[in-house]
Design goal:
Blueprint lengths: L1 H18 L7 E7 L10 E2 L10 H14 L4 E7 L1 E3 L6 H6 L2 E2 L2 E2 L1 E3 H13 L7 E4 L5 E2 H11 L7 E2 L1 H5 L6 H8 L3 E2 L2 H6 L8 H4 L1 H8 L2
Parallel strand pairs: 1-3, 2-11, 3-8, 4-7, 5-10
Antiparallel strand pairs: 6-9
Helix pairs in contact: 1-2
Amino acid sequence: MYKRQIYVRGLETAIEQFAGREHPPERLVYTSSTGVYGDHGGDWVDEATPTEPTTEKTRVLREAEEIALGSPIEGTVVRFAGLYGPERYRLERYLEGPVTEGYLNMLHRDDAAGVIRYLLEEDLARGEVVLAVDDEPVGKWGFADWLAEQCGLPAPPKETKTERLSEPNLSEPARRRIETSKRCSNAKLGELGYEFSYPTFREGYREAVTAYSSR
């Protein structure tokens, strides 16, 4: 109920207030999450893939998406992958391990802002959904090994999903994250002409790797 008050009722109130102005805004961009897709067993998903939200938060996000797309202010829904960047890097987590298998879909925070700005300035994707993710979804094990190599450290310990799920006291949100696997496509964003500042994790994590190596 609390999440619905924030994501659904909050959006409805904002639309009501802005749409009622003498000069209402022409565009609404609602930022959602790739979490609305649920689990796809590591398969690719795009804007045409049916959503299957599995948590309270992703269910209300999906409801809010429909409100945005049906708004009197013409709406666009941007589904963000996992955001990272300064103060949002998870370097130590992946360097120390253990790292559970699965895929990472990521987007640098500068590109998150860049996508919104681009869609507004170029007046694109009115009434549409756009998936915002970088060029290369990556396996967590491969990502962790790359980070370790770049930092001059041995590869971190790994664990399978089965091993992780068998651990006692695993929270339900953590369980759902582990069980949820997919690779998100940015083909539509590319067709719209957006150019990434950080097209993959290699460019995006360079700052974090440099800072870690210079400690």
